[in-house]
């Protein structure tokens, strides 16, 4: 989306529509600068690091494993999925 805005703005700047060069660039940088041109401060970032990764991945794995186990049990009970045994070959 940012690339599209840059290309659209560059196209506007290249044509003779009466747009000044600073007006086109100002539209692109409104998120990062004030109207005076001063840079806005960086937003506050909360860093969780390794603890955040562990707190997200482990519950996701446990919940996914529980769902998979329940679905496999349901399929076996209803004879929709029966694991194949290679020991019972009739050759």
Task: Describe what you observe in this structure.
With 91 residues, the chain is an all-alpha fold. Helix content is 55%, strand content 0%. It has helices at residues 2-14, 21-28, 49-77. The radius of gyration is 29 Å and the shape is elongated. The protein starts with a helix and ends in a 14-residue tail after the last helix. The model is unreliable at 14-20 (pLDDT under 50).
Key traits:
single chain; 91 residues; mainly alpha; 3 helices; 55% helix; elongated
Structural class: mainly alpha
Task: Characterize the main sheet.
Answer: none
Count of DSSP E strands?
A: 0
Alpha carbon gap, first and last residue = 62 Å
Question: Residue-averaged pLDDT, rounded?
Answer: 76
What radius of gyration results from the CA coordinates?
29 Å
Characterize the overall form: elongated
Number of helices in the DSSP assignment:
3
- Secondary-structure element series: HHH
**Helix share bin:** 40-55%
Show unreliable segments: 14-20
Strand residue percentage: under 5%
């Amino acid at each position: 989306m940012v690339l599209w805005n840059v290309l659209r703005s560059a196209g506007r700047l290249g044509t003779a529509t009466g747009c000044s060069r600073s007006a086109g660039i100002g539209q692109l940088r409104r998120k990062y600068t004030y109207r005076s041109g001063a840079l806005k401060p960086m937003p506050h970032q909360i860093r969780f690091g390794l603890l955040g990764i562990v707190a997200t991945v482990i519950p996701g794995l446990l919940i996914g494993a529980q769902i998979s186990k329940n679905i496999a049990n349901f399929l076996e009970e209803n004879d929709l999925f029966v694991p194949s045994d290679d020991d019972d070959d009739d050759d």
